[in-house]
Write a structure and sequence with these properties.
The chain is of the alpha+beta class. It contains five helices and nine strands. It has one domain. The strands form three sheets. Strands 1-9-6-4 form a four-stranded mixed sheet. The N and C termini lie far apart (about 105 Å).
Length: about 210
């Protein structure tokens, strides 16, 4: 039997009703954990004054703190011996060593936050300072970040001590008398510990190992 096309209907299956928004389960929006992750903080220590300019007068200027006890109790990593650093640097083999640096509190915080020797954005492509830069640092100081491998250095007294791990490919000899090692301000480092040696006083100026 012939059926006119205009009376022909296409079959459409019956679909279940779509759930409304109110019927949908509540799902919390995802957030990027990387955007809110806190900056890793290294261990911090605060030294106490044990000797003052005027005997037994804690209101006078402190002249000695209990830093040696922090070192002797192995609360912070000690520097890699200077002779070992020298051998590694001279060999051209890249290894990680531990060094110390004395700076003011703001500089210490920036070194930790940005992961660099000078508290600037880290750049793994930088190279070790040349001979001219090293000579200028020894003669005048403070032109480049200078670390030391001497755990008895007194320049960190009255300042903040930064204990850092750094790769030897970024290092060049600084002040030999201070067992100093210099690097580019953007050289990447890992801060292992910070020691506040200011004892509530204004931070002092540092020497070449700064």
């Amino acid at each position: 039997m012939y059926t006119s096309r205009r009376f022909t209907k296409r079959y459409t299956p019956s679909l279940p009703p779509v759930a409304t928004t109110s019927a949908m389960p509540s799902i919390a929006p995802m957030r990027s954990t990387a955007a809110v992750a806190p900056i890793a903080r290294s261990p911090r220590y605060i030294t106490q004054a044990i000797e003052w300019m005027v005997d037994d007068d804690p209101t006078s200027e402190p002249i000695e703190d209990d830093f040696d006890s922090i070192v002797s109790e192995q609360k912070i990593p000690v520097p890699t011996p200077d002779s070992d650093v020298q051998k590694i640097v001279s060999s051209g083999v890249n290894q990680q060593v531990t060094l110390w640096r004395g700076v003011k509190g703001f500089s210490a915080a920036e070194m930790e936050r940005l992961g660099s020797a000078g508290g600037v954005p880290a750049d793994p492509t930088v190279v070790s300072p040349g001979v001219g830069a090293a000579r200028h640092q020894v003669a005048h100081g403070r032109s480049l970040p200078e670390f030391t491998s001497d755990k008895h250095a007194g320049w960190s007294f009255g300042n903040w001590l930064v204990v850092a791990r750094v790769e030897t490919r970024y290092l060049a000899r600084g002040s030999k008398a201070e067992q100093g090692w210099i690097c580019d301000p953007a050289a990447p480092i890992t801060v292992l510990a910070l020691v506040d040696r200011t004892m509530g006083q204004e931070a002092r100026l540092t020497g070449n190992a700064s």
